[in-house]
Structures are given as C-alpha cells and as structure tokens.
Amino acid sequence: MTLLQPFIEFAFMRRALVACIALSLSATPLGVFLLLRRMSLVGDALSHAVLPGAAIGYLISGLSLVAMGIGGIIAGLSVALLSGAVSRYTPLREDASFAGFYLGSLALGVTLVSLRGSSVDLLHVLFGSLLAVDNPSLLLVSAIASVTLLALALIYRPLVIDAFDPAFLRAQSRWAAPLVHALFLILVVTNLVAGFQVLGTLMCVGLMMLPAAASRFWRKELPGMIGIAMILGLIASFSGLSASFYLALPAGPAVVLCAALLFFISILVGPCGGILRARFFTVDKEKR
C-alpha cells in the first residue's frame, strides 16, 4: 500500500504514471523491431533529431505543446528521409549518415533554445519534466500510443518479414519494403516526440530501447519479446516514479535508470543467454 500511496494522493503522480504506461505500451514494441533490424542507435539519433523542430516551435510559441510537437515530427522525419537518401545515393552507410545529421541537429537545437530561453528552459527540453505532465500532454501521448498500437497491428506481418527477410518482401512487391520502412520510421519519430514531451530528448529513447534489449534475455520468439518488453517498461515506470518520490530523485532519469537496472539484471540472470544462467548451466552439464 505504501508504494501506491503517492499515486493515490497526488494527481501529478497519476498523470506521470499514465504517460509512462502509454509510452511503455507503444514505444517498447518499436524498440524490439529496431533491435531486430540492427537499428538500435537510430532511435537515439532520431530522438536528437527532433530537437531543432521542437526548438523552432518553442521560439515561435513558447512552451506550446502543439507547436513543439509538430516541429519535432517535421524535424525527425526530415532527418530520417535525408539520411536514407544520402545512404542510398552516396557510398556513406545509413548509420554514418544518421550520426552526421543527428549531431548537427542536436547542436542546432541547443543553439536555437539558448537564443531565447534560459538554462531552465533548455533543461526542460533536454531532460523533460515528467512530474509536470498536464492533461493536454497526457492526451497527446495516449493518442500517439493508441495510433501506434493500431498501426503496428496493421503492418505487423510485413514488418516482421522485412526484419527477417527483406529480400522476400521486395520480391513480393516493389513498393512494400520502402512503404513499411517509411511507416515504421514515422511511428518511431512520433513516439519519440511523445516521449520528448514527457522525458526530454535525451531520456525518451531509454524507455524505448532498454526494455526491448532486456527482453532478448527472457524470450526468443518475437511475440514473447514484445510482451516482456512492455512488462519491463511498466515495471521501470512504476519503480522509477516511486523511487523519485521517496528518494527525491529527478523522475525522468529515475525511470530510465530503473529500465537500465532491469537491463543489467536481464544480462546476468535472463534464461536466454544470461551470463550467470549460461555459466551455471555449463557447469551443471559438465558435472553430468
């Protein structure tokens, strides 16, 4: 009952928990697919890429949820499309082009925010303010999570094929693979924009990728990995918010830190390749 007390007594804790739950349910499956497609660091690159658009929205309308969200989506999709074009028409690989664009985007975004805002505004954009989530932000995050889950259900089969056998998908249809890839990137960017509203541009990718990476140590089949990733995201959200309340920690980093702790625990004791599990299993096998 003690752990539930903050969420019963304080509305801001309930709003923060609902926002994290929505992100855990929508962003972690995308993280699993990023992991399968060997694009783990692309999520981090895109989380930084939304910063210039959000900064321009901030310069125009202040801390306006709609303006910063629209700007972030436009900037993130622009970086994704430009990186794909550069990797397609030049010898530069996609990961290198993403790195170049996101580093420039991060520097540009910080510069734009600093032109008008204070250091407090910059920290708000970079690290978010989870405990200050208001009703409009909560509605936006919930709407993006709902649309993401619906879209994933619609494109799940071609997305799985594209992750494991892209040549087969291209053989079935010339436009299927590019369309699925584009829709997938759109979902990633919109979820990062939702996460940026809550956790900031530097923290939002943590809730997307850490539970997804940890799930690999618990299940091998894809549906199981997605389910475990969601559960780990929910555990990290609840435990991080509880720790932030009782230990006076910043809420957003506390949630991501709990997700990182679950990731390290999974590495150690996960039944599918965990270090300690594999070691004891090997020793027991040798004794037999």
Name the structural class. Answer: mainly alpha
Extended strand count: 0
> What's the overall geometry?
globular
Distance between the termini: 47 Å
Based on CA atoms alone, the radius of gyration comes out at: 20 Å
Overall pLDDT: 83
Our estimate of the beta-strand percent is under 5%
Main β-sheet description: none
Share of helical residues: over 70%
The poorly predicted ranges are: none
Give the secondary structure arrangement, pairings included.
Elements: H1 5-9, H2 11-36, H3 40-61, H4 65-89, H5 94-116, H6 119-127, H7 135-164, H8 166-172, H9 176-199, H10 204-215, H11 222-247, H12 251-269, H13 275-287
Helix pairs in contact: 2-3, 2-7, 2-9, 2-10, 2-11, 3-4, 3-5, 3-9, 3-10, 4-5, 4-9, 7-8, 7-9, 9-10, 10-11, 10-12, 11-12
Can you describe what's shown?
This protein has 288 residues and is mostly helical. The chain is built from 13 helices and no strands. It has helices spanning 5-9, 11-36, 40-61, 65-89, 94-116, 119-127, 135-164, 166-172, 176-199, 204-215, 222-247, 251-269, 275-287. Helix 2 crosses helix 10 and helix 10 packs parallel to helix 12 (251-269). The mean pLDDT is 83.
